[in-house]
Protein: Vesicle transport protein
Amino acid sequence: SMIVFFNPVKFGVTFTLGNAMALGSTAFLIGPKRQFDMMLDPVRIYATAIYIASIIISLFCALLVHSKLLTLLAIVLEFGALIWYSLSYIPFARSVVSKVMASCFDTEF
Structure:
């Protein structure tokens, strides 16, 4: 995990390619058409769009911009999008996480 601090560009590329392979592996297990239909389900269309956009942004920052800071920020964005996308497959998980986060950061006591 310390590779992030020394070379975030290399970590960004490998982490992003790993996420792309994970999407491909679920498409292999359940079939590409069903995977695509599930990704475009109205419940998770926004989570899917943000997740795929974060993958593209991470690769763009790592391979074309070569900025360590932007790549590190893109990795954080991609990780958050991955969590939110994964929660979309668990019933009521996103609403529970949203309520817990809202209560944790609530300023009224």
User: Anything to note?
Assistant: The chain has a mean pLDDT of 89. The two ends are 37 Å apart (CA to CA). Residues 69-108 form one domain.
